[in-house]
Amino acid sequence: MLRRMNETWNSIWFSAVAPQPVACFRILLGILLLIDALMLAPNLIMLLGPKGVMEPRVSYLLLRAPHVDLLRLLPDTTSWLVLFYVAYLVATVLFILGLHTRAASVAVFLGLSTLQTRNVMLLGTGDSFLRIMSFYMMFATSGAELSLDARQRSGAPPEVPAWPIRLMQIQLSVVYLASAGWQLAGETWRSGEALYYISRLYDFQRFWVPYLFEHMWTIKLLTWSTILVELIIGIGLWITPIRRYVMVLGLCFHLFIEIVLNLGLLNWALLATYVLFLTPESIERLRRKR
Question: What string of H, E and C letters represents the secondary structure of 212-230?
Fold first, then answer.
């Protein structure tokens, strides 16, 4: 029995798997990071500059944790910030294209962490999730397929280590299960009233959905359904026979949230991570249908 457990453990963590899912995730993650960076561009100096709305030294004090800020190694001027930002954009594009993928993934993580450290008041759950995933991607062999690096190699694409992919899959489940856990610990979530207050946070409101948020029975139903859906997704993604149905449920769940609330790139980042649960055959079918 111990031998079987050991074999199962090794097959989960230390086996080699097909490269297509993590390669697809590299492209999707890179596109999200590029969009995130470009949205920052119009107000880069005001938000992250040495004399911006929050000076970096204040942001460091608020962090109260180890952090990465490569700009501390450079002169504290606007010109160096802009040069660093442009270098980060270049690294992100190389990451998407899969050119010098490993080096690009390291540059992307360091660049993203540096920019996020400069003003912690800008950060939300989506920003943290993108940073965590970019950290894992430094260790993943994501350029073995769907990349310019792969075009320079002849023969079939090699299999890649599974353990970085497993960490990212677990991270996704942790997000859902932790969210459900915190919600169950909250009185307004247990009573079914939470979405009444959330739907009236006008700074986050995108589109008002008539009727659904105007009657307590629908509000309570949606509140309790949110907890249930998060539990189902967090667990169901690991159950192969129902995985495709869980993914469809997750897609509908996040698209509804995206319509109702402006949560930045969080919904798209979570959905992008679903590709790590797809089989190579599923990805190939999607490519043929394109």
Answer: CCCCHHHHHHHHHHHHHHH
Largest CA distance in the chain: 63
Confidence (pTM): 0.92
- Least Cα distance to 202 among 125, 127, 262 occurs for 262
Answer yes or no: do 22 and 142 share one domain.
yes
Q: Which domain holds residue 185?
A: 162-284
Cβ(230)–Cβ(180) below 8 Å: yes
> Going along the chain, which residue ranges are E strands?
16-17, 160-161
212 shares its domain with 130? no
Residue 205 and residue 260 in contact, taking contact as beta carbons nearer than 8 Å: yes
Mean pLDDT of 147-162: 87
On whether the CB atoms of residues 21 and 141 are closer than 8 A, the answer is no
Q: What is the pLDDT of residue 288?
A: 66
